[in-house]
Amino acid sequence: MNKHPSRLAIAGVSHHTADVMALEAFRFADEPAFLAAAQKNFRGVLLLQTCNRVEVIVEGSADSLKEFLERQGRKGFFLLEGRDALHHLLSLAAGIDSMIVGEDQIIGQLKKALADGEAAGTASPFLALCINKAVHVGVGVRQTTRINRGAVSVGSAAVLLAEAELGTLEGRHILVVGSGEMGLLVAQALAAKQLTAMYVANRTFGRAVKLAEKIGGKAVRMSELYHYITLSDVVISCTSAPHPVIHKAELKESMKARCWPVEGHPRPLIIVDIAQPRDVEEGAGAIDGVRLFTIDDLRQVNEQTMSTRRAEAERAAAYVDEELEHFVRQLHRKSADDCIAALHSWAETVRLRERDKALARLGSTDERTTEVIDDLTRVLTKKILTDATASIRACAEEGDRDAAEALVQALTRGMAADLQKGKEIPE
């Protein structure tokens, strides 16, 4: 008996079990190339890549997805199928599964994954239906609960971490590297901290200028990056670059300019790297004076804030469960459409055949008689199929596609023939 609402499968890694290095190793640097390769194996495929998760969402079987990812050299991933995959998708959009519980960015990230899939031609109608439902649930959760009330994003969590390390950010100099969505979240979180100076660096200087204007900071060019690192107390880096933008050798040189005159050790520099893949070259944390943190270190921020949102998270989970039931029934009903269409097509063929036989037996008939016979056969067929159609839909809503198909077969092929073959016909 098929209890899966559909052939939905999700595989990937997330902050629950993977650290920064594992996430980085699992990422797909060339997203269009990955989607193109996956499209040859699945009816639909989407790729969700954020700073703390990489997930592949397909219309297909879990076994096929597992084999495909293993051929791509990936391992150590979770694998979900059918109802479990749908529940994960809705929980994800609700913010329940996020590292920072209740954060809102996941909704935009799901929308982007769908938009990228549509642009690449890999987003099947079914996957679009699932993502749009998840987004709808995510919005509904935030409207009916307070799960995101006072919740922090990964960007603002980075600011809280830096503040905890320094005691206060008041009077400090902060450099934000990256002016995308995450850079904006970081800058907004910093805006209320009474900083002495905030610098914004980005590969595209114009974008750095726009963000700096929004938050009253100063835009700097990437060519000046290490000069402003020297001036700063904290660096929060969150670019979308596919490679490190802060290199160990140059950082080591810039730290020399931060040395105390007497002690010979550099003034401490806090770097919070929340990019995925990482912005800071591996080994930079070993440089004298550098205190390097990654998204792995943000887990403690969520643990500290989660206690205030635990009850809301439970309410959100209940909301997700209820919406999942509605959605699964909707998908089951949709899955019965093909069965019902086949039944009605068969019935119409029988109706026309028997109508024509009856008219032939009557011999010469006028237009009025022909209309009456046609209407009679049409009404009888419709009434006979009403209960059968309702039964098929009822089976489908319970996830029993096999029983729905057996009902169609009993009607179209003959119940007696099926019984002779020993096939059990649902009551």
CATH class of the largest domain: Alpha Beta
- Which stretches are poorly predicted, pLDDT < 50 over at least 5 residues? 415-427
| Helix and strand sequence | EHHEEHEHHHHEHEHEHEHEEHHHHHH
Strand proportion, as a percent range, falls in 5-15%
> Shape from CA axes?
elongated
- Numbering strands along the chain, what is their spatial order in the largest sheet? 7-6-5-8-9-10
Largest sheet: 6 strands, parallel
**Record field, number of beta strands:** 10
Structural class by helix and strand composition:
alpha/beta
Tell me which CATH architecture of the largest domain applies here: 2-Layer Sandwich
Mean model confidence by pLDDT: 88
Cα end-to-end separation? 15 Å
Helices, by number, come to 17
Amount of helix = 55-70%
The third-level CATH topology of the largest domain is Beta Polymerase, domain 2
Number of domains: 3
What is the fourth-level CATH superfamily of the largest domain? Answer: Glutamyl-tRNA reductase, N-terminal domain
